[in-house]
Amino acid sequence: MLTGGAAPPGQCLPAGPDGARLCRLRDLAPDLAVGVAVLAVCPETPADAVAAYRAAPGAAPGGACLATLGPLLDGPDEVAAGHLRRDGAVLRLTIEHTSVRRLGRDLLRNLPWRPLLMLALPPLPRGDYRLAVTWRAVAALGDDAALAGGTQTVVAGFVAGHA
Q1: Measured at the alpha carbon of residue 113, what is the angle toward residues 83 and 58, in degrees to the nearest 5?
Q2: What is the pTM of this model?
Q3: Using the 8-state DSSP alphabet, how is residue 73 labeled?
Q4: Measured between alpha carbons, how far is 146 from 33 in angstroms, rounded to an integer?
Q5: Distance CA 37, CA 131 (A)
Q6: Which parts of 1-159 fold into alpha helices (H)?
């Protein structure tokens, strides 16, 4: 599990043990909807990641990197990504995030940001796959219950290129 919230805005946390990287985006992707894309490679910088995400039509043939852009969060919010699970031709990832705004907390000197998570996909046999990423707002990371209206699932199809 990758957790984050401590990276400065506009920067990425170092990759976690599973290779996942979380970037805190400010002013780079205000016009993009919550979504998921499969990229040819995982970009190194937040600006390159946003450019690749913006250019991706949803899936790159033979893509090797999952990139998912989350909802607008507030300065104190945190993000935790679960493990990528495979069930046949469907890959699933759940990402939890806190939402101080949904909890009605006061925000002084707030610095809104968007989470962008990148994760290398495991080698897959050639074929058609579906990727489902769920962004879940919770009161605290690890909570079982999502906050009301705080769950969004985004889906992309892609073709694995490994033989």
Answers
A1: 55
A2: 0.86
A3: B
A4: 20
A5: 9
A6: 46-55
Here the tokens at position 101 are 């705004």
Long-range contacts of residues 46-50, Cβ cutoff 8 Å, at least 24 apart: 46/10, 46/11, 46/12, 46/116, 49/12, 49/23, 49/116, 49/118, 50/25, 50/116
What are the structure tokens assigned to 126, written together?
């050639």
- The model's pLDDT over 88-122, given as tens digits with 9 standing for 90+, comes to 999 999 999 999 888 888 777 788 889 999 998 88
Give pLDDT tens digits for 120-151.
888 888 889 999 999 999 999 988 888 888 89
- Using the structure block, give the residue that is written with the tokens 């989470």: 115
What residue ranges do the domains of the chain occupy? Answer: 2-160
143 φ/ψ angles, rounded to the nearest 5 degrees: -65, 145
